[in-house]
Amino acid sequence: MLTCLATAGSAAAQSGGAPGLPGVYDRRPDFRAANRPGEDPVRQSAPAWDANRDGVFTCDEWKQYVTRIFVNADANRDGFVDAKEFDALRRADPAFKNAELGYFDDNRDGRIARAEFVDRPSPFFARFDRNGDCKVTAEEMRGGGGGGPSMRPNLGGGGMGGTVGIPF
């Protein structure tokens, strides 16, 4: 719930302004864009991490991919991504374009440990993995994602994001 509130506040702060509340609710989000291929950054990034190119996206493939992103962003190789290094992480994949360090920083120490990043539930799996098997097939992608996450969100496996209100 706090993630949802933090996300709403963050998204609103970036949007511009409304009378009495600077940066709040001056534009309505286009929720339909999340289902148009090429416009949804989470869906758009999937082919990049389908390691065996079989069109089935697995939690293991996702975790391997975000581990590589984390390692590349950790410029000083100290095992953490700090605020300065976080920009490289945002540029690594369209799904992270609007990500916020605070979302991943569970212990609020101003940096992200690998586990804090890699073990986050994935918004991709929350949206498309309808049967909860940590695999998303082409059929699940065609039939899922229209209204956001499934009625039964999959919060296991996958790493990164996970429920309505994720900040990216």
Automatic annotation (TrEMBL):
<dbReference type="InterPro" id="IPR011992">
    <property type="entry name" value="EF-hand-dom_pair"/>
</dbReference>
<feature type="domain" description="EF-hand">
    <location>
        <begin position="61"/>
        <end position="96"/>
    </location>
</feature>
<dbReference type="Pfam" id="PF13202">
    <property type="entry name" value="EF-hand_5"/>
</dbReference>
<dbReference type="InterPro" id="IPR002048">
    <property type="entry name" value="EF_hand_dom"/>
</dbReference>
<protein>
    <recommendedName>
        <fullName>EF-hand domain-containing protein</fullName>
    </recommendedName>
</protein>
<dbReference type="InterPro" id="IPR018247">
    <property type="entry name" value="EF_Hand_1_Ca_BS"/>
</dbReference>
<feature type="compositionally biased region" description="Gly residues">
    <location>
        <begin position="143"/>
        <end position="168"/>
    </location>
</feature>
<feature type="region of interest" description="Disordered">
    <location>
        <begin position="140"/>
        <end position="168"/>
    </location>
</feature>
<dbReference type="GO" id="GO:0005509">
    <property type="term" value="F:calcium ion binding"/>
</dbReference>
